[in-house]
Design goal:
The chain is of the alpha+beta class. Helix content is 31%, strand content 18%. It has a 3-stranded antiparallel sheet with strand order 2-1-3, with no helix packed on it. A hairpin with a 5-residue loop joins strand 1 and strand 2. The longest helix has 17 residues, at 45-61. 4% of the residues are buried.
């Protein structure tokens, strides 16, 4: 489910919502469905890199990098090579 930012047209309340394709989000403050979808801000680059590396460490621990050579695994886990 994607996470979207919305602003309620009825009360002006900004909020985020996980939205399935078949559902219509509602404002958590007033219950209105008159919403404007907004562009979300991105995470700062340092945080994105830290999150990406944490996910790669977990994947390596679970054996998802088994098809890479030991040197390629080391490069991936050091962040020197992108997949």
């Amino acid at each position: 489910m994607p996470l979207y930012d919305y602003i309620c047209q009825a009360c002006g309340h900004p909020f985020e919502a996980l939205v399935r394709a078949a559902t219509t989000p509602v404002c958590p403050k007033c219950g209105s469905t008159a919403l404007q979808k907004c562009i979300s801000s991105i995470a700062p680059a340092g945080k994105i890199e830290a999150i990406r590396m944490a996910h790669r460490r977990v994947a390596a621990a679970q054996g998802h990098f088994d098809h890479y050579s030991p040197s390629d695994k080391a490069k991936l886990l050091q962040g020197k090579k992108n997949i």
